[in-house]
Design goal:
Largest sheet: 2 strands, antiparallel
Order of helices and strands: EEHHHH
Number of strands: 2
Structural class: alpha+beta
Radius of gyration: 15 Å
Distance between the termini: 34 Å
Helix content: 25-40%
Strand content: 15-25%
Number of helices: 4
Strand order of the largest sheet: 1-2
Length: 90
Amino acid sequence: MSSEKVYTLKHPVQLGGQTVAKVTLGRVKGKHLRAFPASNPTMGDMLDLAAKVMGESGLLLDEMEAEDIAGVCELLGESFQAGPETGSKP
């Protein structure tokens, strides 16, 4: 199973003289979450987390269209889906 997820931008971004048409999200690790708030994250927090997981500058996300940001955040959210339950309940 691949640990990376690729999102194809619906609205490619011009950045640094290059066109960015796809972004790759790696696995979310503790180092990505260190500064992420445990409750009430803002959109800025989500964008910062997405940039870290993509290994990109926040400038790329700043230039992305809302539709693409939503798609990236949806993929990012899949990393936080609950897994199978283990152990017994009290």
